[in-house]
Amino acid sequence: MNRERERLRKDAVSIFEAGVRAVDPENAVKRHLRLENGVLEVSGSRYALSGFDNIYVIGMGKAAAPMARAVEDILGDRIRAGIINVKYGHTAALKKVKINEAAHPVPDEAGLKGGRSIAGLLGKTGERDLVVFLISGGGSALLPLPAEGLTLDDKRELTERLLECGATIHEINVLRKHVSRVKGGRLARLAFPSTLISLILSDVIGDDLDSIASGPTVPDRSTFGDCKKIIGKYGLEGKLPAEVVKYIERGEKGEEEETPKPGDPAFERTENVIVGSNIAAARAAKEKAAALGYNSLILSTFIGGETAGAAKLHAAIAREVVSSGNPVDAPACIISGGETTVTIRGKGTGGRNQEFALATAVDIDGLENVLVLSGGTDGTDGPTDAAGAIADGTTMERARKLGLDANRHLRKNDSYNFFKPLGDLLITGPTNTNVMDLRVVLVSKIR
Asked: Are both 214 and 309 inside the same structural domain?
């Protein structure tokens, strides 16, 4: 590895890591939750704990364990009990709150068991109880509680088909809400009349509350009719479980209860607070880049759509920096966030970040002193042990020497096995946070 490429790689990883540190879930909770003289302050709201008989902590998501640790540090023995569902391996040492590990992104029996336990706990709470609910990325899959008449296998197959077809996270969550007993505001119904405080680490573009973890504690703007439109849009009519389709059709006719809408009494005693988001990570990454001497710019934290298209955009911007010094002069750092989607056509191994890096590598082939990093802030990208991957202007040349065909790997959705022999996978391990993805494009000064 030449010295300049090694420096760019080191800088890109440092910038990415700075973004991840900024959304550390434990610190994020502590910035928004404070206990003083028996009064719990939550982002400006005040709750006198003397008015509650019990405090319970529940939650789900990849960051739920460190979030729960922060709540335990603040509330200590005031917590009566609690349970959280987390992704396998995403744990922390807790004293009061029980951890239940489960599968993501496709739910499993362990998640269902934990979901039943959480619903059972909420069923015992009353008007003088306080429930602190911790929500983070992966929450939809990690709290599977199918609607009456549906099974976990139905939800699994629904999730798999939606992931494969290229549906956006917003569209996926519309269907998840309507086949669940807890999503789409229904968990707030279970908790009512308790006081419910939801602390949310956002993994959704635009921090849309009713999409984060499928909005278990907020009014749902979507309908069964929207579900039917999404099924039609992606041609899923004959690909989804028959019982799911029948349930949605009954709901569209008014034969199944809709998710709670704005004005529903279930939300009268509920407060939702976003404690961390993608823009916070992007800003911290930008600050780190500036400290390293780069002219840094946040392109957008609303990057979505197909991964291939987003990759072409970022590659074009890198070329523009080299050619004209726009939108910033080299040395330049372009940062973006959000979450793209991949329409699965092959049977390879990879994830959206690795696929982004591979598609970008094709378009920056031969470009000097340019490097691109794309990584998931949770430390995992698809069903792999990588957070993402790193590509530069030499990636294609090095790949050809190893007999690797980038276009073939793209067709097979096999980006992991392209980058692994090159040593260009981004391996971080679980970060216990999740605010979607960060992408870093570096262009050093051309000498």
From this structure: no
